[in-house]
Amino acid sequence: MIPGGREIRDGREYPRAPIVGVAAVVLCNGEILLVRRGREPLLGTWSLPGGALELGETMAEGVTREVFEETGIHVRPVEIAATLDRIVRDDSGRVRFHYVLVEWLCFCDNRDGPVCGDDAAEARWVAHREIFSETYALDATTLGVIESALKFAESMKR
Known about the structure:
The chain is of the alpha+beta class. Helix content is about 20%, strand content about 35%.
């Protein structure tokens, strides 16, 4: 405790400050890499692979590491596709999780795997048309990030 009764927290749940996170829209042969979250926040939901940036790590290094830890896939970060806030409050309105997420467009050269690891309960390659299905129930924010990344990837081909 610090003066005034406030707690100092360094953990991810009920943090004392926002946590910088990185995530990836990984494209390979027309498919997108998705993971089912194995931990809170959003336990059990489908999402993009990613996690918290570590001290001394660049965002590109962080997204490369996080994708590999969750899926065993080696990626090449290309461009930032979006930056957004992910704030989850508890029933009393307190901030339970607060991430500032930097979402990257990444490519991979080898579509092997994925092999699930770290924070992911499941990982798979999904065709673009399938990401809108109820199987994955991706939220509007995640779908918007994917669409932005796909548009950027398309513009690179020209």
